[in-house]
Amino acid sequence: MMTFLNFFISGISLGSIYAIIALGYTMVYGIAKMLNFAHGDVIMVGAYVCFYAVSRFKLPPLAGVALAMIVCTFMGIIIERMAYKPLRQAPSLAVLITAIGVSYFLQNTALLLWTSSPKVFPSIIGRGAFKLEFNNFLLQGQLSVSHVIVLTIVTCIIIMLCLTWFTGNTKMGKAMRACSEDKGAAQLMGINVNSTISMTFAIGSGLAAIAGVLLCSAYPTLMPTTGSLPGIKAFTAAVFGGIGSIPGALLGGLLLGVIEIFAKAYISSQLSDAVVFAVLIIVLLVKPAGLLGVQRPEKV
Amino acid sequence: MADNNLNKEAILKVEDINVYYGSIHAIKGISFEVYEREIVTLIGANGAGKSTTLNTISRLLNPRTGNIFFLGQNLAKVPPHKVVERGLAQVPEGRRVFLQMTTQENLEMGAYTQSANGAAELNKDLEMVFELFPRLKERRKQVAGTLSGGEQQMLAMGRALMSRPKLLMLDEPSMGLAPILVEQIFEIIENLHRNGATILLVEQNAQMALSIASRGYVLETGKIVTTGTGKELLASPAIKKAYLGG
Q1: What burial class does residue B237 get, using C-beta atoms within 10 Å of its C-beta: 0-12 exposed, 13-18 middle, 19+ buried?
Q2: Which entry of A27, A55, B160, B215 is 20 to 30 Å from A79 by CA?
Q3: A184 to B85: CB separation less than 8 angstroms, yes or no
Q4: What is the mean pLDDT of residues A183-201?
């Protein structure tokens, strides 16, 4: 029972990271109707910025995270402006291929700048753990939850609450929702669609920086390809939960994390990814829009 | 043309615009004006270019040549999202309300450019819309996707009014609505007109549109073929034959 609980908590923690990354995918998809496959690599850049800030320039960890967020936010805006904005009217396949191109561009730039040798990410959160003793008829023994895990889950919750508040209550947030439903109609309301899309990229990329730091705190090996697999999995999580939906990204991310950890623990660590994707396929067969995805009804 | 417009400055002046979709020449040199407190209607069959004309005025589409003047100013260099601020609101074809937002949120989006006025003014405008469309008040907290077609049309019109337009452009407000609702919508349009609104109305339902219009323009494959007062056009035998079914 104790091990089960431990696995479950690690799953939630990994899932929280996926969820934070998935938010970037889902928000950008919701508004720009494009899959930004470079999103995973923004995570990597964020992690590198934090790595150098903390271990080379001896900045305090929080300053490192803030710096990573600033760099990634601007990078997101620049990527959108230079790579995607000129393709606003282009077929979606062209945009998709461009996104893959941007992804390789970022990975190879990182390779040039920081070489392929893995860096050991500093333990900016600390390696400590909360230890909980249980002694009742249901639970026996000690539950150890590392600080990283707690911080990851708490961060994810805070981000979710902030985003929910932002999209539900602020003018900019509502404008984002309007744009994601109907850009033409949003424009007729006087909403600047271009700056709204920029804003979405900025938020998504800023969150990617946080995800990068959390990811590398949990799995402290940093390479130019660090972001790509989590990026793909978070994309899966976004589709799983229903791409375009913010609660869907959270649900998809958490489920994906838990399934992955359980598959690793109880089935096979080699097969875990296969299990994850098998579940995705089954969900999409039953519910093509994803768990919380919306199929928009046309009213005549 | 109505003589009392001769000495007035037009609110909207469309000057010889040509609009293309790729290589398709959709609008072929259209010119017309809308004066204060008029209902001007553009009628014509499907594909005549009515909606294209409205979308060009709203700057969602760019004319290849020609100019559009609104309140004396050329809109050519104005980005689409800045058009609303100047007092030009469009109720798009097919209503296009934000289905996943509540009625109230939809109306707030309509007032997007008016946020500098503060919450008190926003509430005043909301009350004005609710007075015009009491149904919307009942449905205030309801997600727009759950409204009926007629209610969505009312919401789309209310949303446009929230921007305090000087010219309201309506694109096929009767589309897809039951006859009784069509009458209701037209009553509301007349009502707005009586209260001083200037309206540019695009309709396929020529009979209805001409019966309330000060003036009308008849479009045929991207060109204006006839113009006159609403009464004149309603009575004209050629129009009767072509558009009014007999």
Answers
A1: exposed
A2: A55
A3: no
A4: 94
Q: Identify the sign of the CA torsion A118, A124, A125, A131.
A: positive
Rounded to the nearest angstrom, the minimum Cα separation between B81 and chain A is 4
Beta bridge partners of B13: B33, B69
* Rounded mean pLDDT for each run of 10 residues along chain B, 246 residues in total: 63 96 93 95 90 94 95 92 94 94 95 91 95 94 93 95 95 91 92 94 91 94 93 86 64
Q: How far apart are CA B153 and CA A279, in angstroms?
A: 42
Query: What average pLDDT is seen over chain A?
Result: 91
For B1-87+166-173+198-246, which CATH superfamily applies? P-loop containing nucleotide triphosphate hydrolases (3.40.50.300)
Chain A residues closer than 8 Å to B83 by CB: 190
Nearest to B152 among A175, A182, A299 (CB): A299
CA atoms of A178 and A223, how far apart (whole Å):
38
Question: Could B96 and A182 be called an inter-chain contact, meaning their C-beta atoms sit closer than 8 Å?
Answer: yes
Q: What's the pTM value of the predicted model, to 2 decimals?
A: 0.88
Q: Mean pLDDT across the stretch A125-140?
A: 77
Is A297 an interface residue toward B (CB < 8 Å)?
yes
Is B98 an interface residue toward A (CB < 8 Å)? yes
Distance of residue A297 Cα from the nearest chain B Cα, in angstroms: 8
Query: What is residue A133's predicted lDDT score, i.e. its pLDDT?
Result: 79
Q: Domain residues of chain B, as ranges?
A: 1-87+166-173+198-246
